[in-house]
Amino acid sequence: MNSLKYLLFIPIYFLMFNQSEAQSKIDTVTFKVQGVCKMCKERIENASLIKGVKWNEWDKQSRMLTIIYKPKKVSENELHQAVANFGHDTDSVKATTEAYQKLPMCCEYREGQETH
Ligand SMILES: [Cu+2]
User: Fold this and answer.
1) pTM for the predicted model, two decimal places
2) Per-domain residue ranges of the chain
3) Which of 48, 55, 43, 56 lies closest to 109 in space, CA to CA?
4) CATH 3.30.70.100 for domain 25-111
5) I need a surface site. Which of 37, 48, 65, 71 has the fewest CB within 10 A?
6) Would you say 40 and 116 are in contact if contact means Cβ atoms under 8 Å apart?
7) Cα separation, 45 vs 40, whole angstroms
8) What's the 82 CA to ligand 1 centre distance in angstroms?
9) Closest CA to 29 of 64, 81, 59, 73
10) Rounded-to-10 torsion of CA 7, 13, 14, 20
């Protein structure tokens, strides 16, 4: 009877352990990134696809970037910085003038361009 108890206990233990492991390994973050067009979308998504990032998507209408990443490999701030390096302001890191000026004219969101 005792050994039967063990047999039931072990699978439950592993199930709980695996779940907490998975939760600590992956995180999701959403923040605002300035941009106006399809080219911006490509640039923003490529820029933020750095080491530790599993999946990302930028929505043109809401200008929100969602990233699924591994917090052990990359920090939230590094994600903001990676996008800003390519000329796109985020809600916490502003792109340098130098990086911004490298953008093509159709992507110049600071000049009051509408989403197109
Ligand atoms: Cu653009």
Assistant:
1) 0.80
2) 25-111
3) 43
4) yes
5) 71
6) no
7) 8
8) 17
9) 64
10) 170
Q: What's the gap in Å between 47 CA and the centre of ligand 1?
A: 13
Please tell me the distance from the alpha carbon of residue 29 to that of residue 32, in angstroms, as a whole number.
Answer: 10
The whole-angstrom separation of Cα 99 and Cα 79 is 16
Q: What distance in angstroms lies between residue 4's CA and the mean position of ligand 1's atoms?
A: 63
Q: Which helix (H) or strand (E) holds 23?
A: helix 2-25
pLDDT at 20: 58
Q: What does the pLDDT read at residue 11?
A: 66
pLDDT by residue for the chain (116 residues), tens digit each?
A: 566 666 666 666 666 666 655 556 999 999 999 999 999 999 999 999 999 999 999 999 999 999 999 999 999 999 999 999 999 999 999 999 999 999 999 999 999 888 99
In one-letter notation, the amino acid at residue 63 is R
